[in-house]
Amino acid sequence: MKKMNFFLGLGVTLILLNFIIALLTPFLPLPSYKDYNFELRYEPPSLSSPFGRDENGADVMTLVFWGSRVSLTVAFCVVSITTCIGLIMGSLAGYFGGRFDFFTMRFIDMIYAFPGFLLALALVAALGPSVRNLILAMSITGWAGVARLVRGEILHLKEKEYIQSAQAVGNSAFRIITIHIWPNLIGVMTVQCTFAMAGTLIVESGLSFLGLGAPPTTPTWGMLLNSGRYYLVEAPHISIFPGLAILLLVLGFNLLGDGLREILDPKSRNLK
Predict the structure, then answer these.
(1) pTM over cut 0.70
(2) Per-10-residue mean pLDDT, the chain, length 272
(3) Which DSSP string corresponds to 76-121?
């Protein structure tokens, strides 16, 4: 238990650190990420520039800090949208069943079977690179897994006696789903959201790496990785620091998800 508490605390610390950096970046005494100094190109990490400088002479720490704002914004928006869509679709399919469940699940299976990254890649390529289009493309492809999870939970919950009692006294389907069923999904959905944040960050970084994320004028971690791959020999710090940022934030959400699952799901704890 102490070991799990340590990893849970580590995950929370990594996430909070990134959120604090993202919130305070506009107020920190950092040089602008648009300030280019070509005389300092490829400068290694130093006291004046802890993360070094890139191929344009821009401060890498500034770029990484501003990139955290973009990555967290995209991840939060995508997870919020996909959770809402998946919760509604999965709830309706699981509760009403029948033909509605059959056709809904076949549609969900069709989306779920197609690789989400490739579908998001195609959508962003068609719509054009921008933060809004990136959020839209990832939201369209990311809700199917949530819907499948919610449907499975509701199929189990609606057989409970208190749900059948609520149906027997004439409660509407809307009231039963929102008042009696959804509160029992809080633990499962919380764990799902933490893991979804980690997956969304990886997809966002991958799309930005391919040039299909935010516009080139907006710093993102994936874009920094892409620009630094040409200078891995003479200036590896250009790619190392944004790569570490992605690694630590994704690790933080995964550790948080594992810790919450241990706390909120007694079954998983008893199996160990």
Answers:
(1) yes
(2) 74 93 90 80 87 88 92 93 94 90 90 81 84 88 90 89 87 89 91 93 90 82 88 88 94 92 64 44
(3) HHHHHHHHHHHHHHHHHHHHH-HHHHHHHHHHHHHHHHS-HHHHHH
